[in-house]
Each structure stands twice: as structure tokens, then as C-alpha cells.
Design goal:
alpha/beta; Rossmann fold; Type Iii Antifreeze Protein Isoform Hplc 12; 3 domains; 6-stranded parallel beta sheet; globular; NADP binding; oxidoreductase activity; DRL_cat; Asp/hSer_DH_NAD-bd; NAD(P)-bd_dom_sf
Length: about 400
């Protein structure tokens, strides 16, 4: 626990949209300051970055300048390399990088302090989980809210949206084709010890969040466990937030109806915003005062995010980056039902070995992957997941 009037030094990994916003935000926080900002870009070319003197290409320099490391690069392979080094140096690590968690995060959770931050949907759902459970609710649905979904969006449209919003093309594509959502809900399933209803999730269309929440709650009751899922706006504008649909004690029914949560038996509580970098500071302050991790992928994940082809893929095709690409999209799957699936987060510089038709799930044997640290750690995660199922099977 930090006990000092000196500001806590935060080194940021990544120099994109989120990192820039974080640098601006920390300028006005008397208890927090930027140590260094780690970038892979040529520093001389970073004319659009605030406080360019904070930039470094050295992982060691970024770690040495910090009391806490914030990883928000969005790149699971790069994040694995940096986070492992930070944890080896004894640094607590806060992330806004669900892509990292569902790819390799489980291999690192027992090596030190590692948590996803509040502010993106998974961290916001974890915070809402703690809040509703403290009031006696029993969650059935951990829900994301999706305004638009196109599994195979056209390039020209995505390029236009990237220009309008000032974010990368890969980010726009991963938001639009559902990959980011599938990754986020896989992290929730693993981190909050729940499950998914089916590969790819259910995602009912709805005009009101509570109506979609009720549908998902019924599915959860039939399955016998809470679910991590989402609702999709049906011709209406829904808030860019998260929700939990839950049950409560029968004795509370009249009180909850009076308090405008409806007649039950399901009650939907909505957090109608997520403010990304502006909320990360809450998590950082919590870490420095001794809070437990808010959310991580757990050491024994049950849900992964597979890569599904969007188009015919020929032998020899190289996928430079799977997440946010026009070749594949992500889909949440139970790991033990699809043990040979290739996590979409590992598809970087990956060469296709055989013809793959649109809609096929890519398997490990279908792809030649570079031998990265992330790939090695994922193999360990997979071996442990398969072994745990074998040990649990009746003999």
C-alpha cells in the first residue's frame, strides 16, 4: 500500500488512441503522473502524441520509471511480452486489453498482481457484479450491449468510420464484426466463473435491454448456470454500457417493484456508460491502496475465442493480424469442445496451410504460426485445460 504525498508513477504501454487520452487525463491528477510511454513507433514520427518526451522504445526504461504499469496496446502478443517482463520486475499490472487476457493472460495471473481496469465493458461488468451482489442480487446474465453488428463489413465503409472516429482500421473492424464483443464476454465468463450459452453467444435482438435480459435469463435458468452474453439493438439506440439481469429473494419483490425495477422475477440493472481511460484511474488508485484484482482471465479458463474465416482462404495466405482483419472474425467457444481451435489473438504473421471455406473455424493444424512467447504460453494453458477435464472425467 502506497503511503506518500508523491504522485504514483504510471508507465503506459501503447501509444494509440487510448494511451493519448490517458496522458491528457493524468495531467490533471495530483496523485498520479506518467512515468514513460512505451511505443514501437519511431519516436521522431510521433508528432501527434502529447508530451512526446515521455515516449520510449525501451521496455526496461518504461518499467524502471514506474510504480505501476498500464498496458493498453490492444496487441495480445506484444502485451504478453511486456507484461511478463513487468511482472518479473515485481510491477503490479493494470490493463485495458481484454485481447491479451483471453489469449495468454491465464498463464500469468499467478505470477503477481494482474487486473483488467474498470472502464471498458469487462471491467465495468465486474464492477457492476460486485455492486449488485453486495445488494443481495443473484446474477443470471452478464450482458454487453451492442448497437450494430456486421460479421463481414465492407472495407470502404470501415475505412470511412476509422477516419471519422480517429481510431485504427483494425479497431473499427473488430468492433463492427463482433470480435471485440466476443473477446470481452469470454473474459467475463472466465473471470467471473460463469459460462456461455453456445458458441458465438445468443445475442437476442431487443428494443429494451430488460426484454433482452429476460430472454437471456430464461436461457440461463434452462442451462442451470449464469451466462455471459449480449443484446443487439433492434432498430433503436441503446446505451453504450453493460447490464446484469438477476434474481432476488421473494420477500424483496414488492420493494423492487416500488423502486421501479419491475415486477420480477428478473431484474435488469444497467450501467449506461463506459468511459475507458477516464475510469482506469479508479482501478489504479484501488491497486495502490491494496484492492484485490478487479478481473482477470483466471488460471483455469473454460472459454476461448476462435477465428472464423470471413472469406475463402487459400494455402499460403498470410494473415498479418487476425483481430480486426478482413480474413477472420472472433467467436467465443468452450475450450474443451474446441481444443484445437486457433485463438484469434495469436494470428499475427500466420500462414494458412490448406484451403479454408468461409465460416470455418481455423484449427491449430491449419495455420503456421511464428514461435512467439505468447504461442508458447497458450500451449501451456491449453494443456492444463485439457488435463483438468481428463482428471474430472468419471473413471
Amino acid at each position: 500500500m502506497k503511503n506518500s504525498i508523491d504522485p504514483t508513477r504510471v508507465s503506459i504501454v501503447g501509444s494509440g488512441f487510448l494511451a493519448r487520452g490517458m496522458v491528457y487525463a493524468l495531467r490533471n491528477q495530483p496523485d498520479l503522473e506518467v512515468g514513460r510511454v512505451l511505443t514501437r513507433r519511431d519516436i521522431e514520427s510521433c508528432n501527434d502524441f502529447p508530451d512526446r518526451e515521455l515516449l520510449t522504445n525501451s521496455i526496461e526504461e518504461a518499467i524502471n520509471a514506474a510504480e505501476i504499469v498500464l498496458e493498453c496496446s490492444g496487441d495480445p502478443v506484444h502485451a504478453t511480452h511486456v507484461i511478463e517482463q513487468a511482472m518479473q520486475a515485481g510491477m503490479p499490472v493494470v490493463t485495458m486489453n481484454s485481447e491479451f487476457h483471453v489469449t495468454t493472460g491465464s498463464a500469468l495471473v499467478n505470477r503477481g498482481f494482474l487486473t483488467e481496469a474498470e472502464g471498458d465493458q469487462p471491467g465495468s461488468l465486474a464492477a457492476l457484479h460486485h455492486e449488485v451482489c453486495s445488494m443481495g442480487f443473484r446474477p443470471l446474465v452478464y450482458g454487453n450491449i451492442k448497437g450494430f453488428l456486421d460479421h463481414n463489413p465492407p472495407r470502404d465503409s470501415m475505412e470511412e468510420w476509422a477516419r471519422r472516429q480517429g481510431i485504427s482500421l483494425s479497431q473499427v473492424v473488430s468492433f463492427t464484426d463482433g470480435t471485440k464483443l466476443q473477446i470481452e464476454q469470454a473474459l467475463i465468463a472466465n473471470g467471473l466463473q460463469t459460462k456461455i450459452a453456445q458458441p458465438g453467444l445468443l445475442g437476442p435482438r431487443c428494443k429494451e435491454i430488460s426484454a433482452g435480459g429476460d430472454q437471456l435469463a430464461e436461457a440461463a435458468k434452462q442451462l442451470g448456470h449464469p451466462v455471459s452474453d449480449y443484446v443487439l439493438a433492434d432498430g433503436v439506440k441503446l446505451p453504450a454500457g453493460v447490464f446484469i439481469t438477476a434474481q432476488h429473494d421473494p420477500e424483496q419483490q414488492s420493494y423492487l417493484e416500488y423502486l421501479k425495477l419491475g415486477a420480477g422475477p428478473y431484474y435488469t440493472l444497467v450501467r449506461n456508460y463506459h468511459l475507458c481511460h477516464l475510469e482506469i484511474m479508479k482501478t489504479i488508485r484501488g491497486v495502490m491502496t491494496g484492492d484485490d484484482p478487479l478481473l482477470n482471465n483466471s488460471s483455469q479458463p473454460t472459454v476461448g475465442v476462435a477465428a472464423i474465416s470471413k472469406c475463402p482462404l487459400q494455402p499460403g495466405t498470410v494473415i498479418e493480424r487476425g483481430i480486426g482483419s478482413f480474413e477472420v472474425r472472433g467467436s467465443a467457444v468452450p475450450i474443451t469442445e474446441y481444443p484445437n481451435h486457433i485463438p484469434i489473438g495469436l494470428l499475427q504473421g500466420a500462414r494458412i496451410r490448406r484451403h479454408i471455406a468461409p465460416g470455418e473455424i481455423l484449427m491449430l493444424e491449419d495455420v503456421e504460426l511464428p514461435e512467439t512467447r505468447a504461442f508458447g504460453l497458450y500451449r501451456n494453458i491449453l494443456a492444463q485445460a485439457v488435463a483438468s477435464v481428463s482428471e474430472a472425467a468419471p473413471r
